[in-house]
Amino acid sequence: MKDSIKRLLTSYFFYFLIMISLKFIILRYLLLQDTSIWAGIWYDASFILIFMALIELVFKRGKAAAYLVLDLFLSLLFIGMLIYERYFGTVPTYYDLSQLNQVGSVNESMWLLVNGTDFLFLADLLLLVVIWIVGRTWTYPTKQTSNFAMSVFLIAGLVIAIFNFQMNKGEPILDSALFAKENGLFNTQFVQYYQDQTNSEKAFAFSGEDQNVTQQKIEELKGNSYTPMSEHDYFGVAEDRNLIVVQIESLQDFVIGESIDGQEITPNINEWLNDSMYFTDVYQQIGSGNTSDAEFLMNTSLYPLGKKATTDQVGGMELPSLPRMLDEKSYHNVTMHADEVEYWNRDELYPALGFDDYYDDKFYGEKDTVGFGPSDGWFYHRSMGAIDEIDEEYDKFYAHVLSLTSHTPFEMPADKEGLDLPSEYEGTLTGNYLQSVHYADQALGEFFQDLKDRGLWEESVIALYGDHSGLHGKLLKDEDQDLLADFLGERYSLLNRFNIPFIVGVPGEEELTGTVDHTGGQIDMMPTLLNLLGVEPESLYFGHNLLHYENNLLGMRYYVPTSSFLNNGTFYIAQNSRFDARILNMQTNERIEGAYKDPNHAFKEEREDILQLLQWSDAYFESLR
Questions:
Q1: Half-sphere exposure of 502 (CA within 13 A, CB side)
Q2: Cα separation of 451 and 460, whole Å?
């Protein structure tokens, strides 16, 4: 017996069991702010036992190499998970990790988030090298273990893992970090995979009769009395005009109309506000697909899938969409983006949305490269040439134009830095962001002037919005938070982060100018534009016309836990692994402290309503396959 214990304590199995278990404990603390050692042992150590017992039973030779591969793989995986969470603010799932080929555009920024603590996950490998050097006279660790003991460990690990899975497989995952904290990191991945497969196999037979869903019921959940769009004010005021929609990379609302040291940050947009409708309270609603989710939202008025990039699920589909609705009105529909069309599977997204043509990096080339693509100046120049040809060939067109230059990490060439920033902004992420947005505005102004010079401005509806926040996550250092607080005159909150501009111009229609403060999201953009163009959708949509409805209920997920919502006055952020439920007053941007003993109960109805809307949208999407 003593001999068996000694063999176990001096084995590779024992060494790596201790080291990998310590790594799980450190990971749970850094990733989930969890200090419960028991939770790590009960939920995650069972999987360690399974992996390591299998190595002991399967590998008669090369055990050390097998352990090293497992240890190194887990170490790099854990470091990757931490960096991902620092950038995106959410714990990655198995699906996110399978999509690492899609994060090329943020690689440079993510590397900025490597911390010294990350190297703790590699320290045991260095210790092992030291032990092996000393081991010329001190033989530790050894390969000796008992097959019987390893079989017991394997069975115990499997029993615990299967028990935990069975207990949790039916529990909804509203926030992957919170679920992982309460039910284990590995267990969360298996439960998530099981639920994804189960939901996809249900093959929702969705219809208005099956789910009792109508446009009226969707609107009533938001607190409004439904009115057919054809009865809304301004319906068809811009009928038969061209539609040009510009999606600006990482453009947040807080820079609009603002100056720094007497210099306007977005002078061209600011001038345009005099002749357009400025929707000041519109918020991003993207999921893990980020920019591609913004494209999806704009063109479908459906919720993105959240944990999965929606673009990965649309292959072969024919989605009810803005291009398809405009196609019935004899529009020619194109989308323009200087990125690779394969990135985020846009080569499948664009046919699913019904675009007649797309222009990608092959069209724009590599001239005047900034970051990972051509500058906005060159992009708009080439786009204008294409729009000229489209205008000559077709009576009406819809062009979805997506800029690129103002992408993280916002590092601009000296000749494109148009702002003379105060010294404290120089070299900071905030300063770089302001420079990149200023350049994006400059290039946009040139594009707008080209449209006017060619006579297209007066013949079109022109809309602009931001795809998502640019200043977020742990890319923001303490100095950035201080700079933003000084710039905004208040703390930089999630409301500031998620608030994006939405601006719509209908040249010649003076009544369609001014500020609109109705709370909205990216899901509301398509219905608002369709109202102006005089198109009544025949299919379901989950946004609404911001020029008609005053009340709203907007869902967000992925960047905040599912069941979080925005309505006319409240931003409710559901509990996650780090914080209890939080409530922000949308008028004051202040957190409401202690006003509710139980926020979950106080907002139970709204949470149920937004979960219902999300379920309806997901089910409707599945029915379109």
A1: 28
A2: 9
| pLDDT of the residue at 206 | 44
Question: How many whole angstroms from its chain centre is CA 399?
Answer: 24
pLDDT in tens, 474-510: 889 999 999 999 999 999 999 999 999 999 999 999 9
**b/e burial code for range 114-130 (CB count within 10 A of at least 16 → b):** eeeebebbeebeeebee
Question: How many C-beta atoms surround the C-beta of residue 453 within 10 A?
Answer: 10
Residue (of 168, 142, 101) closest to 3 by Cα position: 142
- Chain-centre distance of CA 535, in angstroms? 30
Task: Output the DSSP codes for 157-207.
Answer: HHHHHHHHHHHHTTS--S-HHHHHHHH-HHHHHHHHHHHHHHHHHT-----
Q: Is the peptide bond before 141 cis (omega within 30 degrees of 0)?
A: yes
The count of C-alpha atoms lying within 13 angstroms of the C-alpha of 416, restricted to the half-sphere facing its C-beta, is 27
Tokens 């067109």 -> residue: 397
Torsion sign across C-alpha atoms 336, 309, 551, 619:
positive
Query: What pLDDT, on the 0 to 100 scale, is given for residue 135?
Result: 64
The packing angle between helices 176-183 and 147-168, to 10°, is 130
Q: What is the DSSP string of 415-439?
A: GG------GGGTTSHHHHHHHHHHH
- Under-70 pLDDT residues of the chain: 1-8, 97-112, 135-143, 199-211, 595
List, for residues 64-109, the tens digit of each pLDDT value.
Answer: 889 899 999 999 999 988 988 888 778 888 777 666 555 555 555 6
